[in-house]
Amino acid sequence: xxxxxxxxxxxxxxxxxxxxxxxxxxxxxxxxxxxxxxxxxxxxxxxxxxxxxxxxxxxxxxxxxxxxxxxxxxxxxxxxxxxxxxxxxxxxxxxxxxxxxxxxxxxxxxxxxxxxxxxxxxxxxxxxxxxxxxxxxxxxxxxxxxxxxxxxxxxxxxxxxxxxxxxxxxxxxxxxxxxxxxxxxxxxxxxxxxxxxxxxxxxxxxxxxxxxxxxxxxxxxxxxxxxxxxxxxxxxxxxxxxxxxxxxxxxxxxxxxxxxxxxxxxxxxxxxxxxxxxxxxxxxxxxxxxxxxxxxxxxxxxxxxxxxxxxxxxxxxxxxxxxxxxxxxxxxxxxxxxxxxxxxxxxxxxxxxxxxxxxxxxxxxxxxxxxxxxxxxxxxxxxxxxxxxxxxxxxxxxxxxxxxxxxxxxxxxxx
Length: 415
Hints:
The chain has 14 helices and twelve strands. The chain is α/β, with parallel strands linked by helices and 415 residues long. α2 (44-63) packs across α11 and α2 packs across α12. It is globular.
């Protein structure tokens, strides 16, 4: 079987007609979405929760008649967090007439940026990918639609400053996954280190990030920082929590980028008690107390089915819902702009650039996407482990935005 067919059968079995089925039901008015995922690779612990969240939101929309009368068919392909399968997936989506594409992975997004532009199909890379793609003029078909790694770096430094009171003369460690994603924020962190007067030292963790005892020992035993910023993903975040806790470093002086933050990471590290004080960034709502999540639960109840177990891992599941919701809103804008006619990917691109004031009851940050800003402002929240659960410690904010804008302008001037 091909990777596509395997995924087709797997998704069809678990989500029935929401992704592919009901050919006759969808025959009249149907729109095709492409979704890349990692269900079997090094970040499968993310993909196997995030992607079901995406499918469930689409199922919810379809159960209510679709988007302005159009049902949505989702074609999902497992790229295994590898570039060649990601390139193949894009070609398959194009062949199937997909009007947008959910990307997965920073190396994969970097490889596809040019192809998206050539084929005029928009792709979204929420919370990962190429940071400079926030500039919609330079990357017209790539949409970060959430805080990029540059924006996360700016927010991490702002949070560290808030926790320490002042960064001048302080020591900050940056513990990161040694690949393009992990290296992406370095220019921002280095710039802010000069501006704020703190010492920055970096510690790279080789893939797959399951061994970092030497780096943690170097950080805690030799460098002895005042604060640690981590940028890890896959199974690496849980390893970092255990290692830091084991070396006696106070976790209330740690903040993780957005992929070091799910409930599953904390459980794998030994539970909420072990991770007490550990803070993480989020770009979508956390928990189940949102109307959209309650609507999905009600949808399953109406079908006589229990809510899927993935819903309990709210960090990654909710991000899947977040991505799907923005995709649907972009398509809704496009259909309305065309007076009800079926939109092209170019129409959907314009629809994405028209998103404003769309918050889903606080589930989505107060971002505004435009032709110039495909990131939407780089908003994040901070959530901290307190009393055995994740608690919101800081509501939506933008960290060191002028520095991010400066780097975007400088990057544009080189092109």
